[in-house]
Design brief:
CATH architecture of the largest domain: 2-Layer Sandwich
CATH class of the largest domain: Alpha Beta
Number of helices: 8
Structural class: alpha+beta
Low-confidence stretches: 19-33
Largest sheet: 5 strands, antiparallel
Order of helices and strands: HHEEEEEHHEHEHEEHHE
Helix content: 40-55%
Shape: elongated
Number of strands: 10
InterPro entries: YfjL_C, YfjL_N
Keywords: Membrane, Transmembrane, Transmembrane helix
CATH topology of the largest domain: GMP Synthetase, Chain A, domain 3
Oligomer: single chain
Pfam families: YfjL_C, YfjL_N
Number of domains: 2
């Protein structure tokens, strides 16, 4: 009797193992795709790029799988143009779309590069002039430039801070003085340092999260700073007076 049970148990164990392996493969494929689909995606994407962008001397990275929409995406970039890079999306046996028009022709890549390069300039100024060596200051090009960049921006053009491009700067640093007066002084000193280095911004913001405090300031203009009344404007904004357009959020965090 026991001898008869052993083959049955082995069959059941083998069946259970097969089901387990199949389940694991199904889950894996759901998240990372499968090698055959990836191979087809890479092949179709290459054909698409060769047919549509053969004059651009492009490199194609291997496609990666997005389990959220079941699509493959491959990044494509030029060997000679710093701003010519975009993504191609594949699903259900064909290329669904690419973002060459918006990212390359629409100058999104160029403007993003400008923001990154301007951020590096601003970060160095804050470190050198104000002493915040580990600051993470960020510069963002105004959204209206993204909507109509053609009159000012050209593909691969060199960044120049004197270009007539509206931009906003947000100081990200560890504040030693969390008072309104201390915040006003940092913004005023930053504005002065930027002006002395020919950097001009439409708006200023500040973000600090250290020593149990969270501080977020937004919407400060050069006129607010130059008025000499910035501390009062910040106090009013803190009291929920939004007439000036300044936003102030200060909160002591739980330790």
């Amino acid at each position: 009797m026991e001898n008869r049970k052993k083959p049955i148990l082995r069959i059941l164990a083998g069946f259970a193992a097969a089901v387990l392996i199949a389940g694991m493969l199904f889950i894996t494929n759901s998240f990372v795709g499968n090698p055959i689909s990836a191979m087809l995606a890479n092949k179709v994407i290459k054909q698409y790029v060769d047919q549509n962008y053969s004059s651009l001397d492009l490199e194609i990275e291997k496609a990666s799988y997005n389990f959220k929409d079941g699509a493959y995406m491959a990044r494509v970039k030029s060997k000679t143009s710093i701003d010519t890079k975009f993504a191609v999306y594949y699903r259900d046996g064909k290329v669904q779309r690419d973002d060459y028009e918006s990212y390359v022709l629409g100058m999104f890549n160029t403007l993003q590069r400008f923001s990154e390069e301007y951020s590096a300039v601003a970060k160095n100024i804050i470190a050198k002039e104000l002493g915040y060596l580990n600051n993470k200051t960020m510069v963002m090009v105004h959204k209206e430039i993204y909507e109509n960049p053609g009159d000012i921006v050209e593909l691969d053009m060199k960044f120049d801070k004197t270009l007539p491009i509206r931009a906003e700067v947000t100081l990200q640093l560890d504040l030693a003085d969390h008072s309104i007066e201390g915040i006003a002084k940092v913004l005023t000193d930053a504005h002065k340092a930027f002006a002395e280095n020919d950097c001009y911004f439409d708006q200023y913001g500040l973000y600090a999260e250290n020593d149990g405090m969270l501080i977020m300031i937004s919407g400060v203009t050069p006129a607010d700073i130059e008025s000499g009344e910035l501390a009062g404007l910040l106090e009013a904004a803190k009291a929920n007076d939004s007439a000036s357009g300044i936003g102030v959020f200060i909160k002591e965090q739980k330790k």
